[in-house]
Design a protein that fits this description.
Blueprint: H1 2-14, E1 30-32, E2 35-37, H2 39-61, H3 63-73, H4 75-80, H5 85-110, H6 117-132, H7 137-154, H8 163-177
Antiparallel strand pairs: 1-2
Length: about 190
């Protein structure tokens, strides 16, 4: 609901026209295994990799990262040993927002900006997390690669307008048959 609110607010403030950041024009990309890759795309992959490694090390090696994992695993047990769940939630929100901000800048440089672009990106991110397994960072990485592969492979056989529909079909299939994802932990709920 908050996303819809902000999309409508952006639509009212800036209009429905597509906007560009005005990044420098790229004359020619590099060919890699038959695909054209622009220098900007290489920068995006590099920044994403650096952020991924930094987040991984932060979560595994720092006191705050370990506290975040503890609160995510069992909030009550974490509070018993003296971890303030509210502080951890705030720090998690700040770190997540910073990473989302960096991602937004990178996406804005690569694509044109439009008021309703967040919904599609959110659905694809959610689908990648479901495929890989909620709560699993390696699973989210695997899920995003599998989703990207499926979308791009799918448009060889379907019109390109169906690219976004492929994400919905994959999400539907995983939610029906494997809701815990590929690397997610299967939870058994007993009555």
């Amino acid at each position: 609901a908050l996303l819809i609110f902000f999309e409508a607010l952006i639509l009212m403030l800036f209009g429905a026209d597509v906007k560009t950041i005005g990044y420098i024009k790229i004359a020619k990309g590099l060919e890699f295994l038959g695909a054209i890759i622009t220098p900007l795309q290489i920068v995006i992959v590099a920044v994403s990799f650096v952020l991924l490694v930094a987040l991984f090390l932060f979560m595994k090696k720092t006191k705050t990262g370990k506290a975040m994992r503890a609160v995510a695993g069992n909030k009550d047990a974490a509070e018993i040993v003296g971890i303030s769940a509210e502080k951890i939630y705030s720090r998690s929100f700040i770190i997540g927002s910073a990473i989302a901000g960096i991602a937004a800048i990178l996406v804005g440089l690569e694509q044109n900006l439009q008021p309703m672009m967040g919904t599609n990106l959110m659905i694809k991110g959610f689908t990648a997390a479901i495929i890989g397994g909620i709560g699993s960072v390696p699973g989210a990485i695997l899920g995003s690669f599998l989703l990207g592969f499926a979308e791009n492979y799918g448009i060889w056989f379907l019109p390109s307008g169906y690219k976004d529909a492929i994400a919905f079909v994959i999400l539907f299939i995983f939610l029906l048959f494997r809701p815990y994802g590929i690397l997610g932990i299967r939870k058994n709920f007993q009555k």
